[in-house]
Structure to design on (212 residues):
């Protein structure tokens, strides 16, 4: 999409395990965290919010509300944040038909499970906003859990650098496969993910049978 991370504006809903890690990762790659919302409220600073300072505030105050280096904004204003990347990383059903029309992001990256309703998904598609579905965007934790199982069974352990290299390869390969299906079929990335998943299950069933 020709969106350089350096200087890209990011709006983030949720500042727990996923949101905090996402904020620090974006910040490390030069992106600008311009708005953050959680259960206590929403804050914004067009000049950027330091995720490490925000993390310290959240640890002390229990939420983003009252963060001194940004101003408080309403929930509707948060969803209307002008940005390149919107990351819903809280709970499901947050982007709805009511607020999907107000989003001013070029891309939605689903850090939570099912944060976009079906109706909102259609609206975003019609508006040309790309949605990176949860099945790809937040799959890292499940993949690394699988790595842990493999290491435990074999009693052979990898370094953190090796884990990250394997994770990157799996995620990139999976994304390229889904993007290829999306381009070939003329569908969204979410629909392409369903097509790819169902195709793999049916191919495996054809080879192995229903009860292997």
């Amino acid at each position: 999409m020709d969106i350089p991370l350096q200087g890209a504006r990011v709006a983030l809903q949720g500042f727990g395990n996923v949101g905090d890690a996402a904020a620090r990762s974006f910040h490390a790659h030069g992106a600008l965290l311009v708005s953050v919302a959680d259960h206590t409220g929403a804050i914004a600073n067009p000049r950027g919010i330091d995720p490490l300072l925000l993390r310290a505030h959240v640890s002390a105050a229990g939420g983003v509300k009252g963060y001194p280096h940004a101003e408080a904004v309403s929930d509707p204003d948060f969803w209307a944040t002008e940005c390149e990347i919107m990351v819903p990383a809280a709970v499901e059903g947050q982007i709805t038909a009511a607020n999907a029309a107000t989003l001013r992001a070029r891309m939605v990256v689903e850090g939570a499970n099912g944060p976009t309703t079906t109706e909102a998904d259609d609206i975003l598609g019609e508006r040309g906003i790309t949605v990176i579905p949860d099945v790809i965007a937040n799959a890292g934790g499940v993949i690394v859990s699988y790595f842990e199982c493999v290491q435990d069974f074999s009693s052979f352990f990898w370094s953190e650098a090796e884990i990250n290299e394997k994770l990157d390869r799996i995620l990139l390969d999976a994304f390229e496969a889904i993007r290829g299906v999306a381009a070939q079929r003329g569908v969204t990335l979410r629909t392409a993910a369903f097509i790819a998943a169902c195709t793999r299950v049916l191919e495996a069933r054809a080879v192995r049978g229903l009860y292997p």
Notes: The domain at 9-137 is CATH 3.40.50.720 (Rossmann fold). The radius of gyration is 19 Å.
